[in-house]
Write a structure and sequence with these properties.
The chain has about 90 residues and is mostly helical. The protein has helices at about 1-40, 50-75, 80-90. The chain has one domain. The protein has three helices and no strands. It is elongated and about 55 Å long.
Length: about 90
């Protein structure tokens, strides 16, 4: 049992660490995308419907949240995984 808890903690740490890095990269790219759209809109090249764009982003983040919640719910040793995830996300 102790070995399973250790493995779950390690797996949670690795997944949390990787999630944080991927999320940072994704948010940086999304920021650059929005800034480029704002610049193109200011130059008159494109017309952006900001309400529709932000509702699309909101839907993407809700889907990601539901995925993570479902993943944690399905793990048998969720306590160790969550602790490792939190530690990995913090690092």
């Amino acid at each position: 049992m102790l070995l399973d808890m250790g493995f779950a903690g390690f797996a949670g740490f690795v997944v949390g660490f990787a999630t944080k890095r991927v999320l940072n990269l994704f948010l940086m790219l999304m920021g650059l995308y929005v800034i480029s759209l704002m610049w193109l809109a200011s130059k008159g090249v494109v017309e952006v419907h900001w309400t529709a764009l932000f509702s699309l982003f909101k839907g993407m983040f809700e889907g990601f949240t539901q995925f993570v919640q479902g993943l944690i719910r399905k793990l048998a040793f969720a306590g160790s995984f969550a602790a490792g995830f939190a530690l990995g996300f913090k690092t």
